[in-house]
Structure formats: C-alpha cells, structure tokens
Write a structure and sequence with these properties.
By secondary structure, the chain is mainly α. The protein has one domain (18-205). 66% of the residues lie in helices and 0% in strands. It contains eleven helices and no strands.
C-alpha cells in the first residue's frame, strides 16, 4: 500500500510555498461557490472522502476508508492560531480559528447541503471521527498509549503544532454544533459530555499531558 505524499501545511514552512497556499485557498473558494450555486451537482460529483481530500493541505495516494477526514483534521491542526498558544490565548482565538480557515466553512456547508438520503450518514462519520480522536486523551481508567499513538499516526501535525491534541477536533465541533442541531444531537448521543468531563479531569491533573 502506497504511503501518502506529504506537503507540509504549516505557515512559514519552506516546503509549503505561498503559491501552493494561494492555489489551495482558490480551490476552496471555488468549492464554496459551487456549494452555494449548485450543491446537488457537487454532491453528485464528490462524496465526503473525496471532498475532504480536496480541502486538505496534502495529497494522498493511499487507499482506505475515511482517509479524507484524517487529512482534513491534520491540515486543520497546522492553522496558525493553534501554534504556540497557551490556554488563555487559545480560548480567545477560537473565533479567529473558526472563521479564518475557509476549509472549515466548506466542510460545514458540504454537510449542511447533503441530500436527505446522505446527510445523516455523512454527519455521523464526522461526529464519530471527532469523538474517536478525542476519547483516547480523556480516559481516566484505561489509558493506553497505543490508542493515542494511533490518533497521532492519523494526524501527525497534532503533536508538533497544537497546544493540546484535542483542540482542532473540539474547535471544529463547536462550529458544527452551532450550525447544525442534528450534529448536536449526534454528539450528545455519542456520550461526548462524559468524554469532555474526563478530559477536563485529566487536564487538571496533568495540564500538558500529550500521551
């Protein structure tokens, strides 16, 4: 199985040129325009996996289910407001994080405009990916490093770039639930409240633990 071809999406990286960044942002703007003008056509052309690949800052040649979501959140983890932030800083920057990364809005719009026969399935995949990625860092009883390592393998930018590895997922969940009552219901049914309580307890015990 071929490995993904990486492009480093960090701001300021010598391997991630301004030209590549501009082309990526232009593509996202085109996709947003298509979602507003003819969302049915776009959904007939791209499923969730291919759409999230288009939104991501790396190109993958790897086959497998839901690779696009891993690529998307790995790219989101390298957004500038996440880099080198402390807890007070990151809380103040949440509005900036949610509004300055156009791929976030594009994925939200994609989910909100899904045809009725597909909307719940795609939304559930995103919710499940977020909860599955956050839960290993919240375990109080059965903390297994191999589970967090799996999250890092799928999202390598988390460990290198973010204040805490759960932040990209939680920030996206904030905007998704604000825009979608269906997503809110799915998160509640996924036991996210218990996960967040456990995560809060772990953070108070070891604030910078990124196991």
């Amino acid at each position: 199985m071929a490995k993904p071809t990486e492009r480093i999406p960090k701001a300021g990286s010598s391997q991630y040129s301004l030209r590549e960044e501009a082309l990526s942002e232009s593509l996202v703007q085109i996709l947003l325009a298509l979602l507003q003008k003819d969302s049915i056509m776009l959904h007939e052309t791209f499923n969730l996996d291919t759409f999230t690949r288009l939104l991501s800052d790396r190109i993958s040649v790897q086959t497998g289910p839901h690779i696009g979501l891993a690529l998307f959140f790995n790219s989101f983890a390298s957004v500038q407001p996440f880099l080198g932030s402390t807890l007070p800083d990151i809380l103040q920057k949440i509005p900036e994080i949610l509004t300055s990364y156009p791929s976030v809005d594009a994925l939200i719009q994609y989910l909100l405009t899904c045809p009725p026969e597909q909307d719940k399935a795609d939304m559930q995949l995103v919710v499940d990916h977020i909860v599955t990625s956050v839960k290993p860092f919240a375990s109080l009883v059965d903390l297994r490093p191999e589970r967090t390592k799996m999250v890092y393998r799928m999202h390598p930018n988390l460990k290198a770039s973010t204040f805490h590895p759960t932040w990209p997922f939680l920030c996206f969940a904030i905007l998704l639930t604000w825009r979608s009552p269906a997503a809110t219901h799915m998160f509640i049914c996924s036991d996210i409240i218990k996960v967040l309580e456990d995560l809060s307890h772990r953070y108070r015990e070891k604030p910078m633990c990124l196991i």
